[in-house]
Amino acid sequence: MSALAALLSKPVSGRRAGLRSQLLLALVCAAYAVGAGIGWGSTGVALFMGDFGLSLAALIAAVSCFVYARRSDSRLRPAWLLFSLSSAMAAGGNAVWGWYEVVLSRPVPSPSLADLFFLCFAPPAIVGLLVLAKRPVNRAGWVCLALDAWLIGGSLLTLSWSLALAHTAHMANAEGESVARAALSLAYPLLDIVLVSMVLALHFRRISVNRSAVNTAIAGLALTVLCDALFTSPLLRSAYRSGQLLDAGWFAGSLLLAYAPWGVRRGLDNAVRTGRAVRGASRPITGSLAALTPYLAAAVCTLGILYSVVDGRRPDRVVIVTGCAVVLALVVRQAIMLLDNITLTQELAQKENHFRSLVQGSSDVIMIAESTGVLRYVSPAAAGVYGRAAEDLVGTELPSIIHPDDLGPVFHEVRRFLAAPPREVPSTRIECRFRSGTGAWLHVESTVNRHQGGLLLNSRDVSERVRLQEQLRHNAEHDPLTDLPNRALFTARVAQALGGRRSGDQGTAVLFIDLDGFKAVNDSVGHQAGDELLVQAARRLQESVRAWDTAARLGGDEFAALIVGDGTRDQAAREYQVHEIAERLRLTLSQPYRINGQEVRVAASIGVAFAEPAITPKDLMRNADLAMYRAKAGGKDRVELYAPQMQAEVVRRSELAARLRTAVRDGEFALLHQPVVHLASGTVAAVAAQARWRSSQGILFTPAEFLRVAGDSDRAAELGSWMLEEAVEQAADRARAGHPVSVSVRVSAGRLLDRALPRGSVEALLTRHGLPSGALMIEVADHDPRVSFDDLEQRLVALRRLGVRIALDGFGNGYAAVNALRRLPVDVLKLDRNLVDGVVESARLHKITSGLLRIACDLGMQSVADGVDGPEQARALRAMGCTHGQGAAFSGPVDEYRLRRALARGRFPVAGGGPTARPVLAGGWIPLQGRSHDETPVPPT
């Protein structure tokens, strides 16, 4: 099959050109044979074609071989040069012959110059054939080659002498011919015998390089020698005339020799040789004939002697001497062969023992399978590798010990391997599972080679390697703590769910889950307990999803679940079903956890996103992540479904954050102030600084809008520093302009402890702008649980020593307010606007607000109500004992120009003005007088 493939792979034009040249050669030879057969039509033409035609053919062969030898660089170059010389001799002899017969019109004398050329034809050809012969590797090989040549030549000489040469010699002696003519009569057949001997010897010993060209050259020389032998026979030589049919053989032999180096393509030769190697069917005919050569030679000698005896003649001394020499050469050759065989047998036994030791001592299992798949040899290593004795496996069909699931891939690979050319694919590797003696399946890797029509398998157990690879793959795709799939495997599962036949199933959903309060567990109970909580949460998650769904841990306290769609077309029902699954997961994950003997609670915020047509796994997971963050922002411990506006909001916030990074440096921020009004008199007691951002698009953003997207802490710190310095600077300018009113600046607890606001920076800021420390109030914003109360208390105490007053912002909202009131040095309580909004409508809220104001009054603190938007709220708060308020009922945040106009006016109208329940401050700016909570009258912010 590979030889056919090689032939088919050649260009069609190349094959057609080769066929045309062969056809042309055959037509020319056939035309010459037909012309010779009919006598060429006239005697003159016959003589011309028989002499100069043969000379031209030999000259063509000489030129062809010479040109090829000049272009070739192989070791066969001398042989083609010798063939060129031999053909030139033949061309010269035929030219001399034609000179006598055609030009001079007289018989060719004997001997003549033509005989010299013809006698010189054989020696170069004989030497050229020796060059083409496979060179022996040792001295004994050269001796055997010489003996083989003598055996062939001697046997042919014996037979030829008995048949014709003896008669020719006697006739020459009887007729009184000269010694030269008698020697010439015997020289032609003897040289032909030598040439035939070399042709036969070379046939069994020729080299494999460019074999087709060599075979064609040998065929041409053999045809020439055959015609010479027929010419030297007494019967044909006496009746021979130039231009007869015998000349056609010499003509064809010369043209074959001319065609040999060019007409046969090497690629075709190699392809045929490859095809023979694939079939593995190179028959040992050549080797058998070579071994029979001595016996055939002896048989030919015997026939020569028997012919003389049967003919009633006494055996000629030449026959007896030649026969004895042949027999002696036969004995010597057999002795050499016997010694050589003994040496080869010893070497073979030694190598066999060596390789047997290697095979038996190898840890790999070596098996030989026939073409039918039956094992006919198994090395002893099978007992240690497969747990089965080698004898038990011999005779077993190979497919019977291979796992059924692996048979298809194994057969496919073996068929592909056997169909490929051996030189291109000398071996292949297959990996499958073999049945062991215990019945278990072992992972086996085998190197497969061709072996005498079957397969040679070198196998080894790689079960441990496969187990390690599976473990590494598992570790790379699973979370080491919970053993759930990690982000990479989860993403692959999502891609698999969105692809294939499920690509249009919009019921597939992804759930992103975040454990609310997990960080507090780590901080309070410890990280080891936190890990145990994650393990238990993963177990609950795994048990809550279906078998064909996927639960994964993405990192930290974030989990995910892939809910595979069931193909239902009712989208509403599918969304309801997935929402029910998410709610069940939320309730399950929010149940108390028992860790180290104590009960720990966390909540779960879950975001759900459904697959859409043509959505990518990355986008689907992003949508679920956005929904999860919306659930956390909406109060946590809830389930949120993804909506397209979530992505739009993220894009808007991202763009806003990008512009916000340069807003401070570009001067896009403005500082507004909202008056803080005394509820009893309506006078302005202080102003609260508030930042506003007017973007390059002309949009005015409030702090609640831009601080939420400030992004990193560096931008927030930069904005806070700008706001504090701007507020102090403007307050100092107002004081110098005759409006000495205190200013309050809202600062978060984390910002107060930030290294960007070092100790002494506030004092340096007040000194630089000439503002008394009592004119500055710091509103401590919502307390971050990550901030230490001890550090915050120390920081606030240091600020109060400078004269800076402290207000607790957002009082009444958050679990840390009471603790802050107990530990922090607070001068003013600022009620959260959530308390003020419903203080008129809700009797319950009225009582709560009244109680808080009573606590502030009992502690000697000022109180400020934030978000007083109506006169009824101002009246109710004043009746409860609240001293100050800020809100739309008096004035919203105003710029510096409007603020100074309000300060110049001095007061705002207060609805229902009258005595308060407990007046504390008449208004204006009053410096700080004392240090304790109950001694210091502090103007409100």
Describe what is shown at a glance:
The protein is of the alpha/beta class and 941 residues long. The protein has 34 helices and 21 strands. The strands form four sheets. It has an eight-stranded mixed beta barrel, surrounded by six helices. A five-stranded antiparallel beta sheet has the order 2-1-5-4-3, sandwiched between helices.
Describe the structure.
The protein folds into four domains: 17-266 and 290-331; 362-467, PAS domain (Beta-Lactamase); 478-642, Reverse transcriptase/Diguanylate cyclase domain (Alpha-Beta Plaits), CATH 3.30.70; 663-905, EAL domain (TIM Barrel, Alpha-Beta Barrel). It is 57% helix and 13% strand. The model is unreliable at 1-14, 171-180, 265-289 and 914-941 (pLDDT under 50). The two termini are 100 Å apart. The protein has an eight-stranded mixed beta barrel, surrounded by six helices. Strands 2-1-5-4-3 form a five-stranded antiparallel β-sheet, sandwiched between helices. It has a five-stranded mixed β-sheet with strand order 7-8-6-11-12, sandwiched between helices. With 941 residues, it is of the alpha/beta class. Helix 4 packs antiparallel against helix 5, helix 4 packs antiparallel against helix 6 (122-132) and helix 9 (211-232) packs antiparallel against helix 11 (246-263). It is elongated and about 165 Å long. Keywords: Membrane, Transmembrane, Transmembrane helix. It holds the Pfam family EAL. It comes from Streptomyces halstedii.
